[in-house]
Structures are given as C-alpha cells and as structure tokens.
Amino acid sequence: MAFSKSTYEFSWFPRDAAQRIETTILNGLADIVAVYLTPNMKPTWVNQALIDASGYSKEALLSMPCHQCWFQSDTACSYCPVLKTFETKTPEELQAQTPDGRCWYIRSFPMFNENQAFEGVVQVGRDVTDRKNAEIAFQESETKYRAILNNIEDGYYEVDLHGNLTFFNESLCEILGYARSELIGLSYRAFVSSEDINLVFKTFNRVFATGSGAKGCNWRIVQKDGTVRYLETSVSLIGDAQGNIRKFGGITRDVTEQREAEAALRISEEKYRYLFEGIPVGLYQASLDGRIIDANQACLKIFRCPSKEALLTQNPRKSYANSEDGVLFRRRLMENGYVKDCELRLRRWDRSVFWASVTAHAVYDGFGNISGVDGSLKDISDWKEREEQLQESEAKYRGLAERCSDIVVLVDNSGAPFYWSPSSERILGYSSSELMNRHPEALMGADGYAAMVEYIDRIGKGKASGSLEGRMAKKDGSEIIIEWMAIPIYHGEQLTGIQLVGRDITTRKQAEEALRRSNEELQNLSKHLEAAREQERTGIAREVHDDLGQALTAIKFDLSWLKRRLSGGDPDALLDKIEATTEMADEAIQSVKRISSRLRPEILNDLGLEAAIEWYLDDFRRRTGIDCRSNIKGMVFANDGVCDELCISIFRIFQEALTNVARHSGATEAFVQLEHAGGWIDFRVSDNGVGIKEAHAKDGESFGLLGIRERVNAFGGKIDISGGPDKGTSLKVLLPVTNGKKRGYKFQTDHDKIIKTIS
Q1: How far apart are CA 84 and CA 105, in angstroms?
Q2: What's the rounded Cα separation, in Å, for the pair 200 and 189?
Q3: How many beta carbons lie within 10 A of that of residue 628, not counting itself?
Q4: Position with higher pLDDT, 524 vs 388
Q5: Start-end of H helices in 685-727
Q6: Which residues sit opposite 542 in a β-bridge?
C-alpha cells in the first residue's frame, strides 16, 4: 500500500476536497482502519468501521491504546503487528482472536513522507470470524471424509478428465501395489491391462457423454510387481460449485478371488455332475417354492421313486409328513441362508414315512436374491430308532438319578466328574455348575480325595467292592459324612467310567456316636448306682445296727430285768425301769422315722410336693447355712393334679440340685422356683456361687447331672444347665404334666428302672 503526499497530509486531518474524498472512501470500507503516529498505540485517526466494530465513540478510541480497547489490557500485545512495523519499518500481518470470540486478520503498513522519512503506521483489519468457522467446519468434514475413505476396504479414486489420478485412499494403493507418491498424477494407462485400456476409455467416455454413472465395470489391472488382478469398478462424474464437470470418481474392489472361484467352478462342473450322480448321499436342487429341479440316483432310491421325472412332478408340499415342518424348514432357510442337519419326517413315493437328515443352502442370483436351493439328505430311520431307544433308556436312568435322594456322580477313568445329580445340590448346597467347576479335593480334603482316587482305581481294576466312607464340605462350611458305593460302567468290554452313589450318613453316624456315648454313660451310671445302692444299704444297716440294735437290746435287757423282779420287786424301781424302757422305745421310733424320711419323706405322701420342698429347704438351710428362698405357684401338686411318679422325680431332682449347690458352688444363696402353667411344669434351681463350666455341664462322668438328665428324659422333658463366673449356676427343667394318681413306675426302658432305684 503506497501513500502519496496527500496521504501524508491526511494523517493530520486534511481539509481540502481531495482529502475529504479519501476520508469518505476510508469510512466507506468494511475493513477497520486506524493510523498510529507513535508506538504508544493510541490512534490519531480511525474510520467508521472501526468505531462500529469496537462499540466505543470516536473520542474514546482516540484517547485509549489499542490493546485496552480490544483486550481490556494495560500492556501492549507481545505479538502486535503495529509495534513490529514501528520496529522493522516493513508491513506485518497477524490473525488474532478478541475476547468476544471474533477472529481478525490484521495487517500493518509503514507511512513515509515525500522525503521517504518514516512517519507512522496504518493498521487495516478484517473480521474473518465467519470464514474461520467455515474453515473449521470444512476441516472437520474433511477429517471425517478422509477417515471413512481410509477405513474402507474398497479403493476410492478421483481422476481428472485426462485419466490422471488426483486423489485416492490407502486401499487403492494396496490394490494397485504402488506407493502413494508413485500414484499421484499417474495415468490409468500405467496400470490398466493393455487388453482392457480401450474398454476403460469407452466406459469413462460414455459416463462423461451421458452424465449417468456406471456400476459393476470389470477390467484387469497389472500391479507394480506384474501380478494381474480383476477389479469391479464404479464410475461417476464430479463437478465444481458451478456445476462444471472437473473429474471422475468412483469405488473399485479386487474381485480376483471371486473370478478365480467362478473359473474353478466352471472347470469343476463336470466333476460335480459325476459326483452328483455317483455319491451315495441323496442330493437335490429345488426352486424357491420347494419344487424339485434335479436329483441324483441316491435321492431317487431314498424316496423309492421309479424315475427322476416322476420325482420332479411330485408336489413338494406332500413330501412332509407334517406340513408345519415344511413351513418351519423354509422359514429357517430364508432367515439364515442355510439349514444344517435338520431332522424331518418325510413321505416316500409309496406314502410310507421315514426319518431324514436334511442339509440345504440357499442359491443366490447376481442381485443377491435367493433363486433356489441346493440340498442333501440321508435316511436316518434306523439310527433314529436306535436313538429313541437310547433316549428312552437314558430318560429312565436320568429320571432315577434325578429322583434319587442320594448323590449320584459319574466320573471318567481318571476320576474327574462329568455329571452331578440334582440331589447333590440339595445335599451339598452347590449348584451343578459350581460342582463341575470345583475340584473334588476341595470338597473331600486331600486325604479323602486320595482315598477316593485309590478306591476308584481298585473298582476299575475289579480289585475292590463294598463301600467307602468319607467327609465332604458343604457350601455353608459344615461337614457331612458320605458312604460311597461305586459301580464300573462299560461300553462293550471297555471301561468308560465309574458311577458313584453317595448316601448322607451323618445323622446315622451321629446317632451311633450318641448311642455309644449313651451306652457308656448308662454303664457308668449303672455302676455308680450300684455303688450308691450298696453305700446306702451300708449306711442304713449301720444306722439300724447302731440305733435300733442298741435300743432294742437295751429294751430286751430291761424286759428281762422286769421279768426277774415281777415276783417280789420294788414297785418304784419297776416304774423307773418301765419309764426308761419307754424312752428307749421312743428313740427307736424316731430312728425309724429318720431312716424312713431319708428313703422317702412321709410329708411327700401326706401334704404333697410343695410341703416336701419347703421342709427339705428348712432342713438344708439348718445343715449348710445357705440362705434358701422359694417361689412355688399353682399348688397343683397338693391337689392330686400330678401323678406320684412325676412328683417323686421332681423331688429327687430338687435334692440332687441342692446337693450339688452344697458340694461345688460355694454359694451363700439359693433360689427354687416351681410353677405349673400351660400343661408344663417349670422347675428352676439357681445359686450365686462360682458358676458351673460348660464342659462340666456336659460331662458324662458327672453322675448327679447324668441322673437328673435321665429323670427328665424319662418324662419327655427338657433340661438346660448354664453358668459362669459371677453368674452362679442355673438349672432349668421343663416337664410335661402327667395327670392322675399312679402307684409304681411304668417305665419302658432299663434307664427308667435304674432311676427308680435312686428313689
């Protein structure tokens, strides 16, 4: 941009007509214009476009630096082209974006006077926001377009009207075998086969002349390494924005393999016909509606048809024993393009029914539409009959296995399971899929699994029989005991696997263990009771001997003395002796009562269980010094509401419980509660002693507790013994009420007879 003298004078606001014309021209421009005489970036003149674009008044613009107007900054832009022109005295340009989002193309030019002295800078700016946005949109579109072209397998090309390549994708480079740099500007004549160059030229010329694109054009090309390939190409016209034809474009794909396959197919046609007729499998060709077009001899034999012509005239709908099978077969063929090993019931020429395995493939025409069907079929009637027999046998076996309450497992020769019965899920808690994915060692443990492998090996070799017991872990972490029985499975003479049947015998084992412990406890209790009985007899005999024996002996001496003195004795002396003898008799009677009370308190018969308990508590309190309290509700025992046997058992349990309190608890207080409610007797004895340990509460060697349990079990009751440090011991007994007065025990087991002896 050159500035004359008038332009120089215009910088100081010219006033003559020429200068007004120049000012009018500058104010009429769409570009913004500003004049800077100093590098302080305050303009000395601005045109109307700049005033409109900035939003400030002319006075405001002339009083503020450019960077403050456009960027609200107190410092000049480091990339400012005006400052660079002040430095270099040469034109500068820059693209910048203001905070309001507008893009500007800024150019700055130096001003010189008539003496070529530098006087200032003229800045010209243009709003290029719309153009910038269009460029960005175009670049995005171009990126997507190129990405699509580079990702398709087909080759895309553009050639000018002379046939020279101007644009193409990477797939075209691969198809032609040339690098991109080699193809740019290359004529189609360089790679099209010489035999097809004329065909290519005519095709492009026809498209140009008619304006209609061409599809499915086939010609050969020669790759860079000399390999000949077949291409299937489309051709279309590409024009500019004004509609002028500028070049050709299209899509091409390598169909060499397809052409070679077609050639090979033609070559093998005769071989196919020979095989078609000679193969023992039934082969046929049919139309889309199912009508037979061609069939080989094996197909005629399967249908028992007298001739091929007769088969071709047969209605295809009548070939299906069930018409719905034909509808389903055709639907699957149309949806998938093929049907493999479809089992159908078909009718022969004589209307007999047979099973056939049919495989069919859809045949497509050049437009991708199904034009026919090629198929094969085999007569599988004999195999189907054997399969039905096998399925029936398998269904019976599987039904037995699935209804079996035991675990049924099938393992191969190595011991790996391949079937778990549904009952396994119920017993072990694992689903069938979890059991199949879980190694047996994780279920049986290392030792159990080793024993099972050895057991299976001996079964397979015929060296073992009988059962094997082992533990298995359930899903919830608990263990059960399984008794396994193994049966070898043979196919002919070959061993194919082992069938294992496992029965959960955990409950039986627990019962056996409980019975064994019970027998041991009963044996120990019996010994203890026998010893207690002998000890009791010894104590009673000693008391009878010491108390009653001495008293009766003294009475006997006194009676002898009286006998000798009756004839002439002193009456006063006789009376004294008689009095002394009477006192001895009273003492003997008291001894008899004391011994009798130890065996069975009379108060139990006379006043009932409540009174007997209160009497015994008073006696226990005097003997031990332990403070005893009671809470007895109901008073049903005194009214003959409970049988004698139950009352005696409760009293004996009460005696044994207090005996244990005195012997082991170290308690200072004891509490007895007896209540009858809802058909049950709730009997409790507790203390504030050291508390019984859980192991002692379950100890089978504690004969006192064992006797209490046997008494409770004899009446079908429940017992709970608990305790701990600072909690004391609590005995809780629940007994069902037995009504009516009964004399004597009617126990059904030896255990109850032993308990009777305690009483």
Answers
A1: 15
A2: 9
A3: 21
A4: 388
A5: 694-697, 703-714
A6: none
Q: Do residues 217 and 235 lie in contact, with contact meaning Cβ atoms separated by under 8 Å?
A: yes
Q: Which residues contact 676 (CB under 8 A, 6 or more apart)?
A: 633, 634, 636, 637, 641, 642, 682, 737
Residue 186 neighbours by CB under 8 Å, 6+ apart: 164, 165, 178
CA atoms within 13 Å, Cβ hemisphere of 108: 25
| Beta strands, E only, 391-534 | 407-411, 417-420, 467-473, 479-491, 494-504
Task: Please state, in angstroms and as integers, the Cα–Cα distance from residue 344 to each residue in 323, 354, 373, 436, 471, following that order.
Answer: 11, 8, 17, 35, 50
CATH number for the segment(s) 268-384:
3.30.450.20
CA distance 291 to 373: 10
51-54 long-range CB contacts below 8 Å, 24 or more apart?
53/127
Distance CA 255, CA 228 (A): 11
DSSP H/E element including 89 = none
pTM of the model: 0.30
The owner of tokens 């691969």 is 174
Write out pLDDT tens, residues 280-296.
788 888 887 778 888 88
The answer to whether 189 and 221 have CB atoms below 8 angstroms apart is: no
Q: Which helix (DSSP H) or strand (DSSP E) does residue 1 occupy?
A: none
Do 123 and 93 form a contact (C-beta atoms < 8 A)?
no
Q: Which CATH architecture has domain 404-504?
A: 2-Layer Sandwich (3.30)
- The span from the CA of 474 to the CA of 667, in Å, is 46
- In one-letter notation, the amino acid at residue 288 is L
Ranges assigned E (strand) in 20-78: 32-36, 45-46
From residue 414, alpha-carbon distances to 495, 502, 548, 727 in Å are 11, 19, 85, 59
Show the DSSP H helices in 96-230 as ranges.
129-151, 170-176, 180-183, 197-210
Phi, psi values for residue 468, rounded to 5°: -135, 130
- Sign of the torsion angle spanned by Cα atoms 53, 57, 61, 67: negative
Tell me how many degrees the CA angle 473-474-475 measures, rounded to the nearest 5.
125
Residues 654-704 pLDDT 10s: 888 888 888 888 888 888 988 887 778 888 888 888 888 776 666 655 666
* 600-758: CATH topology: Heat Shock Protein 90 (3.30.565)
Name the β-bridge partners of 358: 342, 377
CATH class of 152-261: alpha beta
Residue 523 banded pLDDT, cuts 50, 70, 90 = low
342 close to 332: Cβ distance less than 8 angstroms: yes
What is 5-129's CATH topology? Beta-Lactamase (3.30.450)
